[in-house]
TrEMBL record:
Membrane topology: Multi-pass membrane protein
Subcellular localization, as worded in the UniProt entry: Cell membrane
Family matches, as CDD domains: MATE_tuaB_like
InterPro entries per record: Poly_Biosynth_Transport (IPR050833)
Name of this chain's protein: Polysaccharide biosynthesis protein C-terminal domain-containing protein
Alphabetic keyword roster: Cell membrane, Membrane, Transmembrane, Transmembrane helix
Keyword Lipid metabolism included in the entry's annotation: no
Domain of life: Bacteria
Residue spans crossing the bilayer: 28-49, 61-84, 96-119, 131-151, 163-185, 191-209, 304-326, 338-359, 404-423, 435-457, 463-483
Amino acid sequence: MNFPDTTAADTDRPVPSGPMTGSAVRGLSWSLVGALGQSILQFVSIVVLSRVLSIEEFGTAAAATVVAGLAVMLGQQGIGSAIVQARELRRADVATAFCMSAAIGVVLAALLLLASPLLAQAVGLPAGSPYLPMLSIVLVLGGLSGVAMGLLQRQLRFRDLGLMELTSYGVGYLGTSVTLAFAGAGAMSLIWGQIAQALMTLVGAYALVRHPVRPGSLAEARRSGRRILGFSSAYSLAQVGNWVGLNGDNLVVTSVLGPTSLALYSRAYQLLVQPANLIGTVADKVLFPSLSRIQDDRERLGRAYVLAGSLVAVLTMPASVLLFVLAPEIVTILLGDAWSAVALPLQIFAVVLMPRTAYKISGSLTRATGAVLGGAWRQWLYAAEVTVGCLVGSHWGLPGVAAGASVAIVLHFFTMLAFSARISRGLAGRALRAYAKSLPLALATAACALPVATSLRGSANEVVVALVTAAAGAAAALVTLTIGRRYFRDEFSVWSAARSRPTRTSVTPSVG
């Protein structure tokens, strides 16, 4: 692929009209396939590793990952997202971004190494444990791969991105972790799995893009650096707040209740995150670059935002009901009887699956329109809500922490919805009505799933209860959706577009 020295006028290419371009919808399909495959692999890892490793070993690895996760996020510095969002992109911009990202990764890895004794003590890890020093390797690898990942998103190459991420997780994390766990490596097997996944992501992403790595003259590097940092610094501020929002509960649990409680809590949250990531993260990957290309057309932005939110609600509301009803069976099937304490926190989290997924749509819109500074303080508000809610809830153990985190999720959903509404008059009302359209799907799922599960429990094993109840609930939701088809015309049109093949005149946007 060629990266010209002159400005790449990719924003001058015609963008098809309509609420969603065909390339974006097909990108959603490929991203969904990749995310579904990764979710299946993650479920496999949950099933296998929960039976090979102890709760204490999971808690130890989770506590180390919480700390390293902040460093990984800081290492990315929003540079990859700046690559995606930029209206114009030069060869010098790409090379400078790569050097900046790589240097930041190395510096943060060194800082993590130096601070690991104090950080380990803060989260309850054994003195002198090797977990944090080992995770510093992930920082270096993440810094090297950030720009390539951003370019893949910018080019809307979601098929390549999805397959690469699926391979890196399956072969890298899952293959490494399971092999080492059976070999008796304990918590270290999870650490090595993260390193292997990061390495495969780096190799795969760069092989697909092969972007320039040598910056031009010093003057060019300075100009490029200023343009990149103008977006990435504000975005990074938002990301720090987002990290605290996503991990403040983990920090509260491990520091107040201990790493063993963190293992139980993190398993419950991970089971919530699986469907949320499958839908929300996929939508974000597609919407962010797609909305960035129409960021000056507020009317189209509003239509795309409302439609994306409605699609999220159609998928998550019935799933939320099934997750709540079947939480005991899901925990027993996936984790085993030793993890039964996970069921109640999982049921609490199930109630907020829709807002937990939907606020990612608002985040996509915020970044696509360049309003990252406004989004940053809202992420910090969310971080404060999570931390305070979980501290208060910790007096009632893990269910209390889950309830506190859930309240914070709902508050953040409405905060981000109000912020998104700035782009178009009446947008918040249209979005809420779009979400409300899916309430009958949830009610129909509950009306069918609850009696089926109640009648089967005690007379059938957990697998039969889960399969029959899920099938009954999904059938009820599908019938309700079919009956109310006229209210979901735009949503069905997206499905039709996803199934259609691209025409010969379709152009996949690329850098340069």
